[in-house]
Amino acid sequence: MLADPRLAAAQEVLGRSLVKAAVADAQQRVREGFADPGEAVEAALALLPATAGGLKSVVNATGVLVHTNLGRAPLSPAAVAAVTAASGYTDVEFDLADGRRARRGRTALAALAQAVPEAGAVHVVNNNAAALVLAVAVLAPGKEVLVSRGELVEIGDGFRLPELLESAGCRLREVGTTNRTALRDYVHACGPDTGFILKVHPSNYRIEGFTSEVSIQELATIGPPVVADIGSGLLRPEPLLPGEPDAAGALLQGAALVTASGDKLLGGPQAGLLLGDEDLVERLRRHPLARALRVDKLTLAALEATLRGSLPPVHRSLRTSVAELRERAERLARRLGGRAEAVATVARVGGGGAPGVELPSAGIAVDADLAARLRSCDPPVIGRVTGGRLVLDLRAVEPGQDEVIAAALERVCR
Ligand SMILES: *Cc1c(COP(=O)(O)O)cnc(C)c1O
């Protein structure tokens, strides 16, 4: 069977052992009478995995745009193409004009610098956590970092920013209270041992009521450098998310350094963006730890294409009108007859930013029992169970994937 041209072609991509395993499964099915001996090759082809990697592409119908469990931001078509182009040998650290070594990722860094001209210089590391570790290594080794008690964030999966910072070799000096922190709290705590003042955007919770916090602008008057962790990676203000800080704004307010993620609202690959004063960024780049945190050529390619190329899916999802979503939901419901009902829903940006922001959306509601069966479809469709029903929210679903949802539901509803 392995000599069959289609299975031989599959071996070129998937390798021999995955194809052999599919063939063995198909032969088992023939022996057990589930497949006709004449259809063994077809059965094996149907059993082949889509790729040699274990990760499956899924349909995100959760209504959460930046879903950490589903890989955060999906890449734009431009980023996907750039990753493919960069996957072989590339000029990532090579100048084609003079044939010498060149600065790694210079075109991606130039794209980021161009997107935020307010920054004196920029650098890119593995993720935002790595960006903060590097900031501590350079600005506050063995020193204190001042941070408001209202901004001691747990990112998710038990990872806490305060613990991350301390593990990088600084001491945290908490100031103020959970709900209120004043400028004088920072001023009193500030001294010769202060490495920097950290301003963290509470990207996955909100403190409401009797509250006050200190702006970057005010913090910048105290003296030590202000490092602003804006979290989500918006480079400029986003009118649809007025409460969400952006890199350009934080720099204009006086932050010496801004750190952010690449795979949240920026809509790109996992990366940690560092934007700030030229001298400081140069010190970050030159620190020995920077080498351990450096990004891969695929990340650089995807980041640059995210910045220069087509609109990232997260932004398209954010901008889609609710009328369009409603129309898609109604079309889906009509197609599925009595098995699905078009419903108004509320989508969210997700753990990646804009806590509390409700995005009006639309989707279809089906029997909650279908959740597990939809997860076992190819591709799996992931929804949200609420009020005893499974809701498939369309805001984060590519319009072309409505057909995939309909086909999956038709299969599992039989
Ligand atoms: C998400 C987030 C982080 C962690 O970013 P990673 O890129 O996942 O390392 C840190 N700080 C804030 C405020 C965040 O929102």
Question: Can you offer a commentary on this structure?
Answer:
With 414 residues, this protein is an alpha/beta fold. It has 3 domains: 5-47, no CATH class; 59-72 and 315-412, Aspartate Aminotransferase, domain 1; 77-310, Aspartate Aminotransferase, domain 2 (3-Layer(aba) Sandwich). It contains 17 helices and 17 strands. The strands form 5 sheets. It has a 7-stranded mixed beta sheet with strand order 4-12-11-10-9-5-8, with helices on both faces. Strands 13-14-17-16 form a 4-stranded antiparallel beta sheet, with helices on one face. Helix 6 (128-139) packs across helix 7 (161-167). The chain is globular and about 80 Å long. It starts with a helix and ends with a helix. The structure holds pyridoxal-5'-phosphate. Pyridoxal-5'-phosphate (PLP) binds at residues 127-129, 153, 155, 200-201, 203, 229, 231, 261, 272. Pyridoxal-5'-phosphate is lined by residues 127-129, 153, 155, 200-201, 203, 229, 231, 261, 272.
CATH architecture assignment of the largest domain: 3-Layer(aba) Sandwich
Number of strands: 17
**Strand order, largest beta sheet:** 4-12-11-10-9-5-8
Distance between the termini: 33 Å
Per CATH, the superfamily of the largest domain is Type I PLP-dependent aspartate aminotransferase-like (Major domain)
Which runs of at least 5 residues are low in confidence (pLDDT < 50)? Answer: none
Q: Gyration radius, to the nearest Å? A: 25 Å
Task: Please provide a brief summary of the model.
This protein has 17 helices and 17 strands. It has helices spanning 5-14, 16-31, 40-47, 77-86, 106-115, 128-139, 161-167, 183-189, 216-219, 247-252, 278-286, 288-292, 297-308, 313-319, 322-335, 370-375, 402-413, and strands at residues 59-60, 94-95, 100-101, 121-125, 144-148, 154-156, 159-160, 171-175, 194-200, 226-231, 257-261, 272-276, 341-347, 359-367, 381-382, 384-386, 389-393.
